[in-house]
Design a protein that fits this description.
8 helices, mainly alpha, 200 residues
Length: 200
């Protein structure tokens, strides 16, 4: 419990920091909104369903990525400007980290829900279903980005974050896919150990 309270406190502090003179308030709002909504849902459902500590930690880091991106905009996060210069990249690739996390973290959330709620009886189908769920989330997010950009015009350009890259949407979904697969390969064993101590 102390860990969860600490993570929640750190997120609150980071959110306050990010709201102080962000690059663009409209983009900040759009980027931090999923984090605020997600954490709110977790808080309200905490007594009915508690995730493993692993999943809560992953959610925390995903929220950090969203909040930092909201403050600077995904195209102008300073550290990734430095990475761009050092590795002679054509763009700031912080958004690719965000989309990797968009596959990585939902994969583990979906995995936990499917296992603990016994949604999938044939376990051999589990990885495929988790990949499909994470990619569906990624696709919906891309559609939302497009809708916001279309409705808000230039105000939505920073949220869309293509930086002139014509294949941005497709590469975002590729990074989400890599994130899902990486999560399942690297964390399934650790996750299973924590799940064995959980109540359904």
């Amino acid at each position: 419990m102390k860990l969860l309270y600490s993570l929640l406190f750190l997120l609150f502090v980071l959110l306050i920091w990010s709201a102080i003179n962000p690059k663009e308030y409209f983009t900040w709002f759009l980027e931090v909104l999923p984090a605020v909504l997600g954490v709110s849902i977790l808080v309200f459902t905490f007594k009915k369903f508690r995730f493993t500590e692993l999943v809560y930690i992953l959610i925390f880091f995903h929220c950090v990525i969203l909040i930092v991106g909201g403050h600077y905009t995904y195209a102008e996060v300073p550290f990734f400007d430095w990475v761009r210069e050092v590795f002679d990249q054509s763009r700031n690739n912080y958004d690719k980290l965000g989309h990797f996390a968009q596959g990585f973290v939902p994969a583990m959330i979906a995995r936990e829900l499917l296992i603990r709620k016994e949604v999938v009886l044939n376990k051999s189908w589990m990885p495929f279903i988790i990949v499909c769920i994470a990619l569906a989330i990624s696709a919906v997010y891309e559609l939302l980005e497009w809708a916001v950009a279309a409705m808000s015009g230039e105000d939505g350009d920073s949220f869309l974050g293509t930086q002139g890259y014509v294949w941005d949407t497709q590469s975002d979904m590729l990074f989400a896919t890599i994130g899902v697969v990486t999560a399942l390969i690297t964390l399934s064993g650790i996750h299973n150990k924590q799940l064995s101590r959980c109540k359904k």
